[in-house]
Amino acid sequence: MEEVSTEVKISTHTTLDFFEGRKLCIMFFLAVVMVAGGMVTICLGTYQISIVEVYSIIATHLFSPDIVDSLDKLKNTIVWNIRFPRVIMAITVGIGLSVAGAIYQGCFRNPLVEPYILGVSSGAAFGAALGIVYPHIFFSIQLGAFLFALLSVFLAYTLARSRGQTPVVTLVLAGIIIGSIFSAFVSIMKYLSNDTQLREIVFWMMGGFYYTQWDDVRLTVPVVLISVAIMWFFGWKLNVLSMGDEEARALGVNPEIFKFIFIVLATLVTAVCVSSVGIVAWVGLMMPHAARLIQGPDNRFVIPTAALMGGVYIIFCDTLARTLTSAEIPIGIVTAIVGAPYLLYLLRSKEKEIFG
């Protein structure tokens, strides 16, 4: 009997190692695709540059900055000052929104939740519109969008909290209410704006990386990567929260504290991303779904996989936005067009599970 028991343990352990190894291989493959896709994206555009030249320019800036002046000025400007920061920002936003979506879905135990569920997008849109119509109020549009994005979630959380607890359903309803209020404020800003300001508000709300500069990258990347790393580190606690509050308490995890930590970090990431590039839809809803289909429900693997898939997806959509037509298409339009058919497919493929 002892020999049989030992064989079963060895077999089970080997099976677990195999599946974890497979998951790590998938993540490594996605990381390679993301880096390679970013390099190819930099090559594409109205002015095409070979991948060898792209690599040479980036390597020179990173490892031999003293000979930058020897580079071709036009190609150097296009690659280093325009396309490279744009690609880094696209990857960062894809990672941030995808992980935020996975966190919200895990905390709320609802696969239909996205990062904007607590009114972040509406709050950010109002802050941006306020900065556009009344530019003397804020130092920048990004600052206004960031502050009001955080304010919307703070109001939703405060409104939902009662007797030391924050019920999930109440929090979602509070987010919808706050989001609707800020949407009404955005409409007021549109009504008060002139033609130029109205055009700028509309374009901001559709999202885009057209104005991305190195200053934006320096502000956004550290916040997103540090927050994502913390959320990934506590991924096992998100697994416990996904089981329900009572089960979490039974396992020694305080659901209120960790739910608050996760929501704060996910909101911070979403606010930073949205304030930098505008509203980019579908990413935070789609990528966690896709990651779970590939890796299963374990958030220790879902979070990094969703992050990498989000980076790849945004690079792909941004490349389409830049190259499909002579005029650049807002990224929000492309992500919606590509994302809607995927969710329709997901709905049809899971029809039996949903409707019985």
From TrEMBL:
Coarsely, its chief localization is membrane
One Pfam family name is FecCD
**InterPro entries cross-referenced by the UniProt entry:** ABC_BtuC-like, ABC_transptr_permease_BtuC
* Membrane topology category: Multi-pass membrane protein
Keyword Transmembrane present in the record's keywords: the answer is yes
Transmembrane parts of this sequence: 24-47, 84-104, 116-134, 140-160, 167-189, 219-236, 257-281, 301-317, 329-347
Query: What are this entry's molecular-function GO terms?
Result: transmembrane transporter activity
Protein's GO biological process: siderophore-iron import into cell
Q: Return the GO cellular component terms, semicolon-separated.
A: plasma membrane
Q: Which UniProt keywords apply?
A: Cell membrane, Membrane, Transmembrane, Transmembrane helix, Transport
Task: From the Swiss-Prot or TrEMBL record, state where the protein is found.
Answer: Cell membrane
Q: How does it assemble?
A: The complex is composed of two ATP-binding proteins (BtuD), two transmembrane proteins (BtuC) and a solute-binding protein (BtuF).
In UniProt terms, what function does this protein have? Required for corrinoid utilization. Probably part of the ABC transporter complex BtuCDF involved in cobalamin (vitamin B12) import. Probably involved in the translocation of the substrate across the membrane.
Give the family, as the similarity comment puts it. Answer: Belongs to the binding-protein-dependent transport system permease family. FecCD subfamily.
**Full protein name:** Cobalamin import system permease protein BtuC
